[in-house]
C-alpha cells in the first residue's frame, strides 16, 4: 500500500548531528512545527530519535539537547546509536514509514529515507577548509545522495548545489519554502527581565550567530561603531549572542574582542555568548532590528531570520544569493562585508518607528495556524 493511502503515517525524525549545533536545533524546530501543522489534514505520528549521550559530552551540547526535548514532547522520544545503523534500527523498531531528514547515510533499504545536506561551504569557501576536509565532505555527501531515496534542502541555492556537485536530479530534491513562524512559548519570558539581567538598555541592535569566521561579526561591529560615534545614537547598543568558539580559527573571537575593547564604545556592546533560547527570543522581541552579516549560509538568513520575520522585527541581511530567498515584511539588504553600507541601512531602519510585537496578530498568521 502506498504511504499516502495509509490512515496513519509514522515519521522517524533523527536528531543525529542536529543536536550538536545551534542552527541545527533551530532548523529542527521549524521542521517540527511544519509537521505538526500538517497533522490537521493528515494523521501523522512523530518519533524523535536521539543519539545516546556520550561520555564527557559538553555542557553546551547537553543544553542544546534539552532544547530539542522541549519541542519534541508532542511525539515519542527514543534513543539509539550514533550512526546510520542506529537510526535504521530505531525506524524498524518503531514501525516508522519514512526517515526524515537524516544527516547520516543509511546503508540498508528497510525504510525510505530523505537525506539532508546543510550546505556546500567547502566548495564555495574552500579557503576555510583543508584539502582533507574538502575531500571528506565530498565523500560523505556523495554517499548520502547515493543511499537516500530523496534529498532535502532548506534553500534553492543548496538544491542547485546538489544538482551541480552531486548530480542529483531536481525531482529528487525537496526544498523547504521560506517559512517564518511564531510560537506562544516565545513570550514566556519577560523581555524587560532579560534585558535587566544582562544590563541591556531599551534601544539595541541584535546579532544572533555562532561566532564562526564566515558569520562576519566584524562587519556588524564596525557598522555599529560608525553609528555610535554620531549624534542621535548615544543610547544605541549592540547585543551579540551565540557560541563563541571556532575550531577552524581559535583566535577569531579574541580578535573581535580586541576590536570591541579598542573601540571606545565597549560598554555599549554586549557579548552574551550562548544563552538559553527563551532569553534570545525575549531579546529579539524588543530589538530595534536583527542584523545578519553572514558571508555564507545554507538556509536563507540562518535560523534567527525565520524568528525575526515571524515576530515582525526589522531584518537586515547581507546580500549573498541564499539570503535573497528570504520573504517577509521589513526585510532589507546591504552589500556583504561592507560596514559602511550596513551603517546606512541601520540608520534608515532606526529612523522608522520601533516595531510593535502584537502577539494576537502574529499568532493568526503563524505557520501553526495553516
Task: Give a nutshell description of this structure.
By secondary structure, the chain is of the alpha/beta class. Helices cover 38% and strands 17% of the residues.
Which structural class fits the helix and strand makeup?
alpha/beta
Mean pLDDT: 90
Globally, the shape reads globular
The number of distinct helices, counting runs of at least 4 residues, comes to: 13
Q: Report the span from N to C terminus.
A: 28 Å
In this structure, how is the largest beta sheet organized? 7 strands, parallel
Strand content: 15-25%
Helix and strand sequence: EHEHEHEEHHEHEHEHEHEHEHEEHH
Q: Pick out the low-confidence regions.
A: none
Order of the strands making up the biggest sheet: 3-2-1-4-5-6-7
Indicate the percent of residues in helices: 25-40%
Radius of gyration, CA atoms, in whole angstroms:
21 Å
Described by its quaternary structure, the protein is single chain
Number of strands: 13
Amino acid at each position: 500500500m502506498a504511504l499516502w493511502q495509509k490512515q496513519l503515517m509514522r515519521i522517524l525524525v533523527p536528531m543525529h548531528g542536529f543536536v550538536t549545533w545551534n542552527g541545527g536545533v533551530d532548523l529542527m524546530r521549524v521542521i517540527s512545527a511544519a509537521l505538526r501543522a500538517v497533522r490537521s489534514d493528515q494523521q501523522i505520528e512523530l518519533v524523535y530519535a536521539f543519539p545516546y549521550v556520550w561520555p564527557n559530552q559538553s555542557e553546551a551540547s547537553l543544553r542544546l539537547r534539552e532544547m530539542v526535548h522541549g519541542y519534541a514532547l508532542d511525539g515519542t522520544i527514543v534513543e539509539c546509536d550514533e550512526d546510520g545503523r542506529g537510526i535504521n534500527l530505531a525506524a524498524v523498531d518503531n514501525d516508522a514509514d519514512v526517515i526524515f531528514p537524516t544527516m547520516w547515510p543509511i546503508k540498508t533499504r528497510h525504510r525510505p529515507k530523505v537525506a539532508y545536506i546543510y550546505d556546500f561551504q567547502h566548495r564555495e569557501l574552500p579557503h576555510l577548509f583543508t584539502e582533507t576536509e574538502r575531500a571528506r565532505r565530498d565523500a560523505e555527501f556523495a554517499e548520502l545522495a547515493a543511499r537516500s531515496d530523496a534529498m532535502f534542502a532548506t534553500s534553492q541555492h543548496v538544491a542547485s548545489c546538489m544538482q551541480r556537485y552531486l548530480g542529483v536530479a531536481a525531482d529528487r530534491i525537496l526544498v523547504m519554502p521560506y517559512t517564518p513562524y511564531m510560537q506562544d512559548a516565545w513570550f514566556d519570558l519577560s523581555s524587560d527581565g532579560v534585558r535587566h539581567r544582562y544590563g541591556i538598555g531599551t534601544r539595541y541592535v541584535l546579532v544572533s550567530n555562532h561566532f564562526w569566521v564566515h558569520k562576519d561579526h566584524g562587519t556588524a561591529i564596525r557598522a555599529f561603531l560608525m553609528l555610535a560615534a554620531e549624534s542621535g545614537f548615544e543610547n544605541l547598543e549592540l547585543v551579540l549572542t551565540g557560541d563563541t568558539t571556532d575550531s577552524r580559527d581559535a583566535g577569531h573571537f579574541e580578535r573581535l574582542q580586541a576590536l570591541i575593547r579598542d573601540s571606545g564604545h565597549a560598554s555599549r556592546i554586549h557579548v552574551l555568548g550562548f544563552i538559553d533560547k527563551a532569553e534570545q527570543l525575549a531579546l529579539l522581541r524588543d530589538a530595534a532590528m536583527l542584523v545578519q552579516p553572514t558571508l555564507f549560509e545554507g538556509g536563507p538568513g540562518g535560523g534567527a531570520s525565520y524568528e525575526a520575520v515571524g515576530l515582525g522585527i526589522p531584518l537586515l541581511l547581507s546580500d549573498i544569493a541564499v539570503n535573497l530567498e528570504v520573504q517577509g515584511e521589513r526585510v532589507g539588504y546591504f552589500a556583504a562585508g561592507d560596514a559602511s553600507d550596513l551603517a546606512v541601512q541601520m540608520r534608515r531602519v532606526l529612523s522608522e518607528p520601533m516595531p510593535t510585537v502584537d502577539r494576537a496578530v502574529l499568532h493568526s498568521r503563524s505557520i501553526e495556524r495553516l
